Amino acid sequence: MTVIVLSGPIGAGKSSLTSILAEHLGTQAFYEGVDTNPILPLYYKDMKRYTFLLNTYLLNHRLAQINQAIQDKNSVSDRSIYEDALFFKMNVDNQIADPTEFKIYDSLLENMMEDTPGNPSKKPDLLIYIHVSLDTMLERIKKRGRSFEQLNTDPSLKDYYARLLKYYEPWYENYNASPKMEIDGNSLDFVVDEQAKRKVLDKIDQKLHEIGNL
Ligand SMILES: Nc1ncnc2c1ncn2[C@@H]1O[C@H](COP(=O)(O)OP(=O)(O)OP(=O)(O)O)[C@@H](O)[C@H]1O
């Protein structure tokens, strides 16, 4: 059984690597469904009001996916459940979200993800983190063109994205729910460069061997 989850900032290439990896390993791919998320555009308009609701929505959505992913046994998901708390905490630190709401969310997450006797663990077998710089992130956000993410829709988003990156590095360092590995998404453009794609897949295969899942 191999449950793999991708992680990394907006536009890091998580969804693309999910497709590539699911094809390579012959496993089921699970996607976040950004375009079907009814709260996300509201959140970008009013983060103060919608942080709690967005994260509650995402928690529910991701938990449903995890339940399916662990039944399918072999799967790749384009986003881990663990990163949402990073967004929420960042908003608390910037007085955008309420600390009590964060506490309730965080404890709900912990209870939901806790291993319980007789039930399969909801934790992944491997977390893959795609590291990107702010420039790469901004370039991809622009190229992809989701309207609510654009700097010309809201110029203050540049600071928001820069802050987000600063939260990601320590988050990855401290992540310990499963084995983990990092991919350099700046130098390895696995979407357009076939050689880079090969390199990334070899690195992942090697890690899966190392942890006894290939
Ligand atoms: N917990 C959260 N709080 C606030 N915004 C979130 C949260 N989770 C996701 N988002 C937003 O949802 C959108 C999609 O995020 P995500 O990084 O998961 O996918 P993506 O941008 O399609 O990534 P990739 O290009 O790497 O596949 C982004 O605008 C992101 O900021």
Structure description:
This protein is an alpha/beta fold and 214 residues long. It has one domain (2-210): Rossmann fold. The protein contains 8 helices and 5 strands, in the order βαβααβααβααβα. The protein has a 5-stranded parallel sheet with strand order 2-3-1-4-5, with helices on both faces. It starts with a strand and ends with a helix. The mean pLDDT is 94. One of its GO terms (molecular function) is deoxyadenosine kinase activity. Its EC number is 2.7.1.76. Keywords: Kinase, Transferase. InterPro entries: DCK/DGK (IPR002624), Deoxyribonucleoside_kinase (IPR050566), DNK_dom (IPR031314), P-loop_NTPase (IPR027417). It holds the Pfam family dNK.
Q: Sheet bearing the most strands, described? A: 5 strands, parallel
Distance between the termini: 9 Å
Looking at this structure, what is the CATH superfamily?
A: P-loop containing nucleotide triphosphate hydrolases
Low-confidence stretches are none
| CATH top-level class | Alpha Beta
* Overall spatial form: globular
What proportion strand? 5-15%
- Helicity level, as a percent range? 40-55%
Rounded Rg: 17 Å
Q: What is the CATH architecture assignment?
A: 3-Layer(aba) Sandwich
Count of strand segments:
5
Strand order of the largest sheet: 2-3-1-4-5
